[in-house]
């Protein structure tokens, strides 16, 4: 029933998300979240070395029953032995996670594959896969352009990318269908825009006022249809058959219970046209500069 859902664990390691009012998830609450996940047939976890203590927290909670997706950061400046750096980074992650192998290893900076060390990095990823340390390899991207150049050059297993009611570039470009035909798994994240789509209109930070027409239209539609924001966000990504995994960042057990309940119901079957191609809005890494 809930097999497409993946537990996003950024909040396990840092104060993540623009709408996060609870702060970093405590270890006790994280255990409740994971136990509940298994009881609901959710057995995928998404984490990253850049998520603060997330991997370490997970390592203390026995995550061997889960299929783990983790991400390694950008190649350090002046790093010359990329292969050794990659292997060391992955083994460090396994050590923190307290596991012998993981389901998938993604690059947090896919542009590294297009740089001078790209081929060496890719060979290293393939080697880790052949050794059984990772089952699948892939990249975490922000833009459709990155998908095009990387899939044209390399044979990868997974693309993780944003998809939500505002950022529909994956679908509007047709890449969801192209990736499916290529046999590449599609994992989507940012389905709530880090909580921005769940916030009450009067609580949206001032630096997003530039896009007030989007928020006005979104909240007017929500009020008119008498629909819960969370239900609409989840139903939208769930309606796209080509999506293999839906990553949901959670900050409490209650939050996850609400997400699971909404995912099971899928009562929303129409959506407002609030999509945008404005990179300053749809790319969270640029929010502080906007």
Please state the CA-atom Rg, rounded to the nearest Å: 19 Å
Strand content: 5-15%
Shape: globular
Average per-residue pLDDT, rounded, comes to: 92
Query: How does the helix and strand content classify structurally?
Result: alpha/beta
Q: Please estimate the helix content.
A: 25-40%
The succession of helices and strands, N to C, reads EHHEHEHEHEHEHHEHHEHH
| Strand order, sheet with most strands | 1-2-3-4-5-6-7-8
- Total number of helical segments? 12
Largest sheet: 8 strands, parallel, barrel
- Secondary structure: number of strands: 8
Question: First CA to last CA: what distance?
Answer: 39 Å
Unreliable residue runs: 16-22
Quaternary class:
single chain
Q: Would you mind describing this structure in some detail?
A:
The protein has about 290 residues and is α/β, with parallel strands linked by helices. Helices cover about 40% and strands about 15% of the residues. It has twelve helices and eight strands. Helix 6 links the parallel strand 5 and strand 6 (about 160). Helix 10 (about 230-240) packs across helix 11. The chain is globular and about 55 Å long.
């Amino acid at each position: 029933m809930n097999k497409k859902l993946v537990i996003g664990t950024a909040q396990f390691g840092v104060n993540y998300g623009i709408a996060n009012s609870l702060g970093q998830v405590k270890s006790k609450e994280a255990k409740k979240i994971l136990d509940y996940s298994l009881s609901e047939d959710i057995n995928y976890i998404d984490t990253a070395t850049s998520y603060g203590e997330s991997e370490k927290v997970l390592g203390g909670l026995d995550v061997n029953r889960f299929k783990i997706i983790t991400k390694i950061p950008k190649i350090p400046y002046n790093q010359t032995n990329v292969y050794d750096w990659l292997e060391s980074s992955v083994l460090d992650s396994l050590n923190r996670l307290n596991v012998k192998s993981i389901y998938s290893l993604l690059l947090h900076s896919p542009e590294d594959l297009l740089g001078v060390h790209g081929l060496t990095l890719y060979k290293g990823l393939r080697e880790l896969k052949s050794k059984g340390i990772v089952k699948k390899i892939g990249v975490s991207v922000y833009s459709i352009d990155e998908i095009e150049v990387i899939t044209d050059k390399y044979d990868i297993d997974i693309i993780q990318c944003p998809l939500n009611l505002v950022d529909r570039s994956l679908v509007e470009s047709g890449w969801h269908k192209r990736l499916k035909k290529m046999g590449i798994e599609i994992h989507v994240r940012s389905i709530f825009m880090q909580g921005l789509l769940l916030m009450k209109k009067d609580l949206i930070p001032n630096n997003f006022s530039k896009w007030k027409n989007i928020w006005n239209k979104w909240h007017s539609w929500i009020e008119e249809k008498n629909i819960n924001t969370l239900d609409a966000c989840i139903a939208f990504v769930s309606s796209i058959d080509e999506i293999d995994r839906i990553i949901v960042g959670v900050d409490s057990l209650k939050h996850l219970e609400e997400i699971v309940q909404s995912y099971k119901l899928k009562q929303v079957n129409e959506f407002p046209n609030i999509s945008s191609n404005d990179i300053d809005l749809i790319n969270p890494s640029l929010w502080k500069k906007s």
